Amino acid sequence: MSHVRDQPATGVLDDLDLYRRIYRQMLLIRGFEDLVQSLFLAGEVYGTTHLYSGQEAIATGVASVLEERDRVAATYRGHGHALALGVDPQKLLDEMLGRTSGVNGGRAGSMNVNSPDDRLIGSFGIVGGSIAAATGAALALGRTTGGVAVAYFGDGAMNQGYVFECLNFSQVFKLPLVLVCENNGYGEYTPYRSVTAGEICARVEVMGVPAETIDGMSVWTVRESAERAVAHARAGDGPVFVEALTYRFVGHSRSDPGAYRPDGELDRWRARDPIVVLRAQLEAEGVDAADLDEAEREMSVQLEQMRERGLAAPFPAELTAREFKD
Ligand SMILES: Cc1ncc(C[n+]2csc(CCOP(=O)(O)OP(=O)(O)O)c2C)c(N)n1
Ligand SMILES: [Mg+2]
């Protein structure tokens, strides 16, 4: 049955060191996105960008339960997915800036990053494309390594036909697949409710795939849900579906100001900022506020160094005729 899980009470952060690391990771993702946005507005980022600000609890919570043998397919809103998997932040930034030192040599840009060594098999610009890729990865992993494949995708993907082909296929063949729907309430500039009939989880449950709706602004809740989902998939019991309710604090892409949002909506979600929520939980568990402030200061210094290094890095040379032939 699908249901919304409530915010955890205090006393649930079982491993404080882990949650401190997660806190830093969430700060890194938020700071990275702010930096990319400022560089984009300054004309330094090629192509387009889709920022993950507000959705950090999902990528960090899910990644925290994954193993080396697992694989992940991300979306074009994928900087957070990549950073949570351990992709080098400097290399990711350099990729945005189109430099040779980028994780894909400056040729993938913001939307198409992949880093197999970090378990990231791709970031997909086709809505729902990550599900098809992860289904293939689950097919391969299930027969060899015992790993699971994770697909991140938005609410918009739930209106793509091939998503249901993948769900059916993966359930029939009991593939180790974890489907993480990041429901941020909008597909581009359109409220998802205005284009989506019924409940998302109900569409999946008719195939016998376990599904639940969770609070995607609480990293503790995401982690707890992901632990159960990954255990189910790894045990050979087939795919699992998690709908994480979230919100993007910025526009869809580029310099979209998000003017289509009703008054007050952004403020209501900002009050549940996943970084603020986790910080409050950590402090309630006795973590010193000064330590958390220090983590923020360190992150600002790191990001400023990254900006300077990225802007100083070389661009790729033009491909030579010989490289084309090869
Ligand atoms: C197959 C396909 N159709 C349309 C588009 C154009 N498009 C790009 S982003 C987007 C909205 C997707 O919304 P959602 O899946 O909710 O993800 P979000 O951007 O909210 O993270 C659309 C329709 C696309 N990239 N791929
Ligand atoms: Mg969406």
Provide an overview of this structure.
With 326 residues, the chain is of the alpha/beta class. It has a single domain, classed as 3-Layer(aba) Sandwich (Rossmann fold), CATH 3.40.50. It contains twelve helices and eight strands. The protein has helices spanning 16-41, 56-63, 79-85, 89-96, 129-144, 161-172, 200-205, 219-234, 265-270, 274-284, 289-312, 321-325, and strands at 71-75, 120-124, 149-154, 177-183, 186-187, 190-191, 211-215, 240-245. The strands form two sheets. Strands 2-1-3-4-8-7 form a six-stranded parallel β-sheet, with helices on both faces. Helix 5 (129-144) packs parallel to helix 6. The radius of gyration is 19 Å and the shape is globular. The structure holds thiamine diphosphate (TPP) and magnesium ion. Magnesium ion (MG) is lined by residues 154-156, 184, 186-187. Thiamine diphosphate (TPP) binds at residues 77, 125-127, 154-157, 184, 186-188, 252.
Brief description of this entry?
The protein is 44% helix and 12% strand. It is α/β, with parallel strands linked by helices and 326 residues long.
CATH fold-level topology:
Rossmann fold
Report the portion of residues in β strands.
Answer: 5-15%
Low-confidence stretches: none
CATH homologous superfamily identity: Thiamin diphosphate (ThDP)-binding fold, Pyr/PP domains
| Overall tally of domains | 1
Number-wise, the strands total 8
* Major sheet: arrangement of strands: 2-1-3-4-8-7
Globally, the shape reads globular
Q: What is the CATH-assigned architecture?
A: 3-Layer(aba) Sandwich
* Share in helix: 40-55%
User: What ions, cofactors and ligands are bound?
Assistant: thiamine diphosphate, magnesium ion
CA radius of gyration:
19 Å
> Treating each run of at least 4 consecutive H or I residues as one helix, how many helices?
12
